[in-house]
Amino acid sequence: MTEFDMAVALFLLLTVVAGLVRVWRGPTDTDRMLAAQLLGSTGIGILLLLGSAMKEAAALNIALLFALLASLAGVAFVRRLRVRALGAGEEE
After folding, report:
1. pTM over 0.85, yes/no
2. Pick from 24, 30, 22, 23: which is nearest to 81 by CA?
3. Residue 3's closest CA among 53, 39, 44, 54?
4. Average pLDDT score over residue span 32-57
């Protein structure tokens, strides 16, 4: 790995730490979900970095799969919030 790859890996590690702190401290579910999305994006970045460094096509395919799953998780979270908001509006 080159020095640039090592610098990018260190940056990704720092974003993982920041994301874990936000997941732990919250304060809201939305903050936690966005932090989980950050962790997913960082995982994708790590897989792309490793895939290009080791010239492994499988790592690139797995990164694409994780990107699809992350988008589905975001949509599911927004739908859950919408259902919760509609349910709260009916009670008033």
Report:
1. no
2. 30
3. 53
4. 88
What letter represents residue 80's amino acid?
R
Residue 4 pLDDT > 80: yes
The maximal CA–CA distance of the chain, rounded, in angstroms, is 60
Q: What is the pLDDT of residues 64-89, one digit of tens each?
A: 999 999 889 889 988 988 888 888 76
| Average pLDDT of the chain to the nearest whole number | 86
Residues 6+ apart with CB under 8 A from 60: 47, 48, 51, 52
Region of residue 55 (phi > 0: left; psi between -120 and 50: alpha; otherwise: beta): left
For 87, list phi and psi in degrees, rounded to 5: -65, -40
- Token code pair at residue 90: 């009916």
Say if residues 1 and 53 touch (Cβ distance below 8 Å). Answer: yes
H or E segment to which residue 28 belongs:
none
Give the integer Cα–Cα distance in Å for 20 and 8.
18
